[in-house]
Amino acid sequence: MRKKKRKQLVSQMSQGLALSKEKLINDFLRMGLKEGDVLMVHSSLSSIGYVDGGASTVVEALIDVLGSDGHLLMPSAPNASYQLDYIRENVLFDVLQTPSALGAITECFRKWPGAIRSAHPTEPVCCFGPNAHWFVESHFGQLTPYSEESPFRKVIESKGKVLYVGVTLSNAGTHLHTLEDAVENFKFPVYYPQEFEVSVVFPDGSTKKMLTKVHDPAQSRERRCDELISIFEKEGALQRVKVGDASCLLVDASLMFATMIKQYNENGVTMYTPEGS
Known about the structure:
About 35% of the residues lie in helices and about 20% in strands. The chain is built from 13 helices and 10 strands. It has helices spanning about 1-15, 20-30, 45-50, 55-65, 85-90, 105-110, 130-135, 150-155, 170, 175-180, 215-220, 230-235, 255-265, and strands at about 40-45, 70-75, 90-95, 115, 125-130, 160-165, 195-200, 205-210, 240-245, 245-250. Mean pLDDT is about 95; it is low at about 10-15. Helix 2 packs across helix 4. By secondary structure, it is an alpha/beta fold. A hairpin with a 2-residue loop joins strand 9 and strand 10 (about 245-250). It has one domain (about 1-80, about 95-185, about 220-265). The longest helix is centred in the C-terminal third of the chain and has 15 residues, at about 255-265. A 7-stranded mixed sheet has the order 4-5-2-1-6-10-9, sandwiched between helices.
């Protein structure tokens, strides 16, 4: 699959079929994004097609669409696999220097002038916009990264949107974890029993320690995230859209969260039991 995609990108490049910033802006506007939006983006650059200027063009297009009053956020986790495997080998997280492992667009955005990164060692989030500090400032010190003080919950609180570009809930469903941190005594043991102490290096050079929980791989392997898509569609929380060649999902974060709470309380629906229990 990856070789086929690479061949397609090379073909587009050789034929001069590059996607411009203007084309991306039109696609973003067509799906309903607008000036002043709060938007969290999960992405796969290669899924979009050959973009003139690469990842930076995608970031520029998004910022242009959201305007001076909007806020663009992207997860920038340093691990692309199980948190437990990562944290056992990494007891130091540098807010400025530790790369994002979530693709070229997120790594480009991490370095973007004016973007601010939250100081959580397993699920840091970058934000660009006039109130970026508010979105990221309280993430440090949270025992679990999806709490009400996290950027994920603040996107919900702000009635923001989540855009999945060429990825789905199964490989980028971070917002689904807000349910687990929001309800009391969540019925599945999603977190590993041990807590981990991590040293966090801040942009000013200071270092502080904090404790964090990580997901238990045994429970993570039971996820069936994409089976929730039809539920969100039915409730009007999710729509299928396109950016370039990429099939995308655009989610109303607040409605998604409300749907998860309702379905959990009434039917026992989770990413582990999408049919209910």
